[in-house]
Design brief:
- The structure is a homodimer.
- Chain A is α/β, with parallel strands linked by helices.
- Chain A has two domains: 86 residues, Rossmann fold; 123 residues, NAD(P)-binding Rossmann-like Domain (Rossmann fold, 3-Layer(aba) Sandwich), CATH 3.40.50.
- Helix content of chain A is 40%, strand content 15%.
- In chain A, helix 2 packs parallel to helix 10 and helix 7 crosses helix 8.
- The relative contact order of chain A is 0.18.
- The interface between A and B is large, with 36 and 36 residues.
Chain lengths: 287, 287
């Protein structure tokens, strides 16, 4: 039976470890690390995410401010807001909560964020640094959290066969780049992939982020594999399930639960990114 | 026996197809597409590359200017030059010929190039757009040339198993991203990969860019595969050989020769990038 990779415990540890750098930033410049969140409309899921981020930020002493806009906001109005936040020396990180209304030019908004304030790590500049094999100051939070979980489990990444199922910009693609940068042999799978069960069975490390409930079946998992389930699917009965059938735990060596696996790590990484940016802005060394 | 994928012929066709857009740019603004090449020192290989680019540019009517600097040039002096070229409205593309002397801060130089003049497609912004699944105006020339060769051969990329051997920033990494964006299942292999022969044998499309003479052996190639050899290795007897053993042609369906495969496509793609940038700068539609 797989060892459970507990994201709540590791997320808490990650947040606790930020106390030192946060104190150092405070001492150096007299203000805490600060994250500005832009929230458009009243999507219930977005409200939950933002509330969750706010709670964690408060706990550790990161100043999180939510800037709310109505659904009818224009791209131009958001760009003005981002421009102000870019210019505000007291703001370390900027996050635009997605999804945005259909009439907003998402790319224009995202690309307007100063790459040095890109708390989510989604800016092409930061993604490009990752794609070039470098280490951007910030990297996308969910895959960064997955990497921490894999490392924490003591799983060898160097030389491992890693299979990533799903190629979204916010999870699958940066996940593949991070695993490649850590010397794994990486296979990117997606909806056009044939022989997925076979590829999946060859994975020492399997990361699944496609948003399909219990898509990965027990016999698709290699004995002893590390299985990271990024899925968060709400079923009609209200329950929350991952992309991986829990039965896979009978074969996996380590496996994340849903909920309580990747989710808590994502929030922790967002705040870790914010603190890293604040340390850079404040000129604090050795974070 | 594999069909030979002739890069000289396809490169020539690609260059010929630029005549229309070049004329349109000339007509619109009264000056041709212009590429500035920064060349430091007197590396013999670099001299050959630059001469080759210059010849092709002249043939098709792209204005290529070489800015030469001595080995002792400083990073700061190169940054001043790049700043001038960025500001010069008559310059469409900027290319810094590598390798640069060890004392130069390569990243600082490369990142200083305006992403809208990044003829080589190496800037993190453009690489990031590629990593995000988008279509940057310019993309790295060698993998872009490989994609053209694969497409020209009529090989189905969508759903194919593509294996990329080598993970350099200028070839392997962007190659993997382009194949992924074209819906291939992509496996990135490199020096830490175990079971390379097995992975290679599973490839419908095999792209090799590691710089090791005849590294890929006949029995590593799947029957009917498309094999793209990016290697250019100079042997002690002066001959030029690829990373793929020519014997692989007995199993491959299509295969590039070395020389005369990927090489001519790279130069053609550099000029295609330059012309695309010029069209954008001149406001020429429908290129």
């Amino acid at each position: 039976m797989a060892t459970v990779l507990d994201g709540k415990v590791l997320g808490r540890k990650t947040l606790d470890a930020l106390a030192g750098p946060i104190a150092a930033v405070r001492e150096k410049r007299g203000s805490p690390p600060a994250l500005a969140v832009i929230l458009v409309g009243s999507n219930p899921a977005s409200e939950v995410y933002v509330r969750n981020k706010t709670r964690r930020a408060e706990e550790i002493g990161v100043d999180l401010t939510v800037h709310r806009f109505p659904d009818a906001v224009t791209t131009g109005e958001l760009l003005v807001m981002i421009g102000k936040l870019n210019d505000n020396a007291l703001v370390d990180g900027i996050l635009v909560q997605t999804p945005l209304p259909a009439h907003i030019e998402v790319d224009a908004v995202m690309h307007a964020i100063d790459p040095n304030k890109d708390a989510d790590g989604f800016h092409p500049w930061n993604l490009g640094m990752l794609a070039a094999g470098g280490s951007p100051i910030v990297a996308p939070c969910t895959p960064k959290g997955c990497m921490e979980l894999i490392r924490h489990a003591g799983v060898r990444i160097d030389g491992a066969n890693a299979v990533v199922v799903g190629r979204s910009t916010i999870v699958g693609r940066p996940m593949g780049l991070m695993l490649l940068n850590a010397n794994a042999t990486v296979t990117m799978c997606h909806s056009h992939t044939s022989h997925l069960p076979e590829l999946s069975r060859g994975a020492d490390i399997l990361v699944v982020a496609i948003g399909r409930p219990h898509f990965i079946r027990e016999d698709w998992v290699k004995e002893g594999a590390c299985v990271i389930d990024v899925g968060m699917n709400r079923l009609s009965d209200g329950s929350l399930v991952g992309d991986v059938d829990p039965a896979c735990a009978s074969r996996a060596g380590v496996m994340t639960p849903v909920p309580g696996g990747v989710g808590p790590m994502t929030v922790a990484m967002l705040l870790a990114n914010t603190v890293a940016l604040a340390a850079m802005h404040a000129g604090v060394e050795e974070v």
